[in-house]
Amino acid sequence: LAKITQPISMDSYEGQEVNITCSHNNIATNDYITWYQQFPSQGPRFIIQGYKTKVTNEVASLFIPADRKSSTLSLPRVSLSDTAVYYCLVGAVARQLTFGSGTQLTVLP
Amino acid sequence: DVKVTQSSRYLVKRTGEKVFLECVQDMDHENMFWYRQDPGLGLRLIYFSYDVKMKEKGDIPEGYSVSREKKERFSLILESASTNQTSMYLCASSVGTANTEAFFGQGTRLTVV
Q1: Distance from CA of B83 to the nearest CA of A (A)
Q2: Interchain contact A32–B (C-beta under 8 A)
Q3: Measuring CA to CA, which of A98, B28, B31, B91 is 20 to 30 A from B75?
Q4: From the list B31, B40, B91, which residue is nearest A94 (CB)?
């Protein structure tokens, strides 16, 4: 299983772009990189998934370098409602995903 | 929208009771999961099912069993509840065999006294 390292917490201000970097040095060839968001007292919510290069959807962008040993989740112009825990996961299928402690993002006014 | 519904948001049970946690999904997903979430430990997979009547143990199956008699319903059973099973329980579902997008329910906060 890939060992995941991501910051425990980050603070940002409303309107700023937030980048959360995750390292996964021993990612396997078949693994995807997936990010989830979790608000207090709710289940996690899928944000984005990628294999290599860059993926963008209506919520976020995911940047993956060629060696795939790290990835960066980019949230454009965050608001207070983006305050949540963000999980970086690697795996080929959903049942292989291991949720660590995630990154607590706090958006300040 | 995919909906994963867990039968209770909050549950209080006594030590030794048999406890059933129910989960229903409405998107015809093949895969269903049960996790527990504890502070500092993240989400840990208890059991996984990839088809009706099929199940696989996750990382922490001890003290739990599951039942999947219908595709849309996945039940987690605590045979004899203990205080160390006090936790937030999360059900999820996903489609297909090469997919990392799972849809989670709201969770059941179980307290065993």
Answers
A1: 20
A2: yes
A3: A98
A4: B31
- B44 CB neighbours in chain A (<8 A) are 99
Q: Which has the closest alpha carbon to A33: A71, A66, A61? A: A71
Q: Which two tokens stand for residue B71?
A: 């595709």
- For the stretch B68-83, pLDDT in tens is 999 999 999 999 999 9
Over residues A36-75, the pLDDT tens digits come to 999 988 999 999 999 999 999 999 999 999 999 999 999 9
DSSP string, B19-58: EEEEEEESS--SEEEEEEEETTTEEEEEEEEEETTEEEE-
Of A49, A92, A101, the CB nearest to B101: A49
